[in-house]
Amino acid sequence: MKMFISVDMEGITGLNDPTFVDSAQRNYRRGQELMTQEVNHIIETVFGLGYKEVVVNDSHSKMNNLLIEKLHPEAQLIIGDVKPYSMVQGLDNSFDGAIFAGYHARASMKGVLSHTMIFGVKNMYINDVTIGELGFNAFVAGYYNVPVLLVAGDDQAALEAEALIPGVTTAAVKSYVSRTSALSLTPQKSGELLRQRTSAAIHNQTQVKPLIPPQKPILKIEFVNHGQAEWASLMPGTILEEGGTTVSYKAKDILEAYKAMIVMTELAMKTTFC
Predict the structure, then answer these.
(1) pTM
(2) If you average pLDDT over residues 133-160, what whole number do you get?
(3) Which terms are listed as keywords in the entry (predicted)?
(4) Please, are residues 99 and 198 in contact by the beta-carbon 8 Å criterion?
């Protein structure tokens, strides 16, 4: 059996503000240590329950955060960028399940360090479904008929996952106080929780169905600033909707929509402010 694990950083135990998740800031090394410890709890549990292969995808920022020398020795790590499929790089139909760890709530919602890909995104949609990183990644897993078994992060990410994926197991390692403060478990207690919830998720895996994406989906991204929308709409095939900051794209499938989202958000980040 084979497990895919996507690991973001904002939803890791004890990480509450940008000083932990920005490589230029003072608490980043602590953030790396905690992130690596956290995914190891999950990996060890997965192997202990009979899985033979675990592939971990580093899914935060430049995607080179996990300390490979401290990672479980039997895991395989996808690290670095550019990755065509970003947070779900390497995921395909050979996997029996997926786990999202260190995840956060989507943009415009309360949650510790909540956002969707970049801070210039206000809302993102697949057809009429509002999604964040969690939802988009779950749709890609569903394209490959892979169920998302466990989502770990703050309590708001857990609520988002439960509303989107029937039967999913969640693990809330901290609770929202404000966007940059949290009531957090200690690493020891979160480790115990993650082991317990990973075990529960795997034992419940037959009850969770893949989140199947729509065929020929329409991707819509509502940006915060009109300049960001202008940049994003430079991608061929996009439409900048009149009177607002929403850019839409008709994709042939969810994989193309995902790549389009990567290109549009990367372009949007070229916007400068004065």
Answers:
(1) 0.98
(2) 98
(3) Aminopeptidase, Hydrolase, Protease
(4) yes
